[in-house]
Amino acid sequence: QVYVTESGGGLVQAGGSLRLSCAVSGSLSRFNAAEWYRQAPGKPREFVAYTNSGGPTNYADSVKGRFTISKDNARNRVYLQMNSLKPEDTATYYCVIGRVNWGQGTQVTVSS
User: Fold this and answer.
1) Cα angle vertex 24, ends 41, 16, to 5°?
2) CA atoms 25, 30, 36, 38: torsion sign
3) Coil, strand or helix: which one is 67?
4) Tally of CB atoms within 10 A around 42
5) Among 20, 48, 61, 75, which lies 20 to 30 A Cα-Cα from 83?
6) Element (H, E) at 38
7) What are phi and psi of 60, to 5 degrees?
């Protein structure tokens, strides 16, 4: 069984930055795909970012140019660097490993 644990969320002012971290039990190199999703209160879950070992990254239009996803197989970590945060980025952020292994989420709140 794969355990996925997100951390790094918190409260930040608009324009600020946060880096989310996703820890994976065992070897992350077993999995090519890593993704981040988010869900705001009262809204459906939405795609944020995707990376695939050796392949291109992909981002939602709403975060393109502000967020960067990275995968560190040596540390069994996936990161989401979030810059120029906006109040509409407020949500619970979820890490997904290998398309099917979800974490419990970490809350990000951006104040105006």
Assistant:
1) 45
2) negative
3) strand
4) 5
5) 75
6) strand 33-39
7) -65, 145
The residue among 8, 27, 7 whose CA lies nearest residue 72 is: 27
CA 23 to chain centre: 11
Q: Give the single-character DSSP code of 65.
A: T
First to last CA, the chain: 40
| The pLDDT value given to residue 42 | 95
| Cβ-count burial 46-82 (b if 16+ within 10 Å, e if not) | eebbbbeeeeeeebeeebeeebbbebeeeebbbbbeb
pLDDT of the chain, 112 residues: tens digit per residue: 899 999 999 999 999 999 999 999 989 999 999 999 999 999 999 999 999 987 789 999 999 999 999 999 999 999 999 999 999 999 999 999 999 999 999 999 999 9
